[in-house]
Design brief:
Low-confidence stretches: 49-55, 57-63, 65-72
Mean pLDDT: 77
Order of helices and strands: HHHHHHHHHHH
Number of strands: 0
Radius of gyration: 20 Å
Strand content: under 5%
Distance between the termini: 47 Å
Number of helices: 11
């Protein structure tokens, strides 16, 4: 029992160190990231009228696009979807980037630290926002009866993806760093490219499970579970991806049964 307690304390200490809370000399970025993530969750909750995935349950059918464009409604509707996709990126994906944000902060001069972080966030959140839009908007064209079957297939694919070498490569790539230029446009460009590269790695690691959660008939519950799995995989050394594969397989099986029955 004592050995188990010591191991748990060591795991928690290592987890806090990976998040950046254990280094008293580091900038206080973790608290800012947590505040931004909570703001994103609150925005989704308010905009979705109680549904954290309000973006996924919109009513924008492809067949109405021409009429909405003529009526002047399409642009505001797409802007609203883009803002919700950005909020979803901030809420779910930003907490996974504390180590990378800390790296950018520590490797930048104090007088340009905010500018460097802004360039990194532009590359990271910009790519994730486009990816969420690309995932969510086609789902709006699905009939209600087809959604459980599509979600079942997405969860089964996510389960299979968890066991592939590509998943493990992407998860390792999420922790990589790269040299950053110290000043000028080169520094902005290198921070932007670094953020975009981390976003690509995150898409490879979390993209399939995010799509499955978005396609789920219960996106709020599914996204909460996927968010917890993503945090576990990102901040635990050598995470066990097979456990998530089993959970996704069970979810896919239940949704398939629902679609059949």
């Amino acid at each position: 029992m004592e050995a188990l307690t010591q191991r748990t304390r060591a795991d928690l200490s290592q987890f806090a160190a990976r998040l950046g809370f254990a280094d008293r000399h580091a900038p206080p970025w973790p608290w800012g990231v947590i505040a931004a993530s909570l703001t994103g969750w609150a925005w989704l909750l308010a905009a979705g009228h109680g549904d954290l995935a309000g973006l996924c349950t919109g009513t924008g059918w492809v067949g109405r696009l021409a009429a909405e464009w003529r009526a002047g409604l399409l642009a505001p509707e797409l802007l609203g979807y883009a803002l919700m996709a950005l909020a979803m990126s901030v809420a779910m994906m930003l907490p996974l980037t504390m180590a990378s944000l800390r790296y950018v902060a520590v490797r930048s001069f104090p007088w340009r630290r905010g500018r460097s972080i802004g360039a990194w966030l532009t590359g990271y959140l910009g790519l994730w926002t486009l990816a969420i839009l690309a995932i969510s908007l086609p789902l709006m064209t699905l009939a209600a009866l087809a959604r459980p079957m599509v979600a079942a297939g997405a969860f089964l694919f996510a389960a299979a993806w968890q066991l592939t070498p590509a998943k493990r490569w992407a998860l390792r790539a999420c922790h990589r760093t790269r040299p950053l230029h110290p000043t000028g446009i080169g520094a902005d460009g290198s921070c932007f490219v670094y953020g975009a590269r981390i976003a690509v790695a995150c898409l490879g690691s979390c993209g399939p499970m995010m799509f499955a959660a978005t396609a789920s008939p219960w996106p709020a519950l599914a996204m909460t579970g996927v968010f917890a799995i993503a945090l576990y995989e990102r901040y635990r050394p050598r995470p066990h991806t097979a456990a998530a594969a089993l959970a996704f397989t069970a979810a896919g099986g239940l949704l398939a049964l629902q679609a059949v029955l």
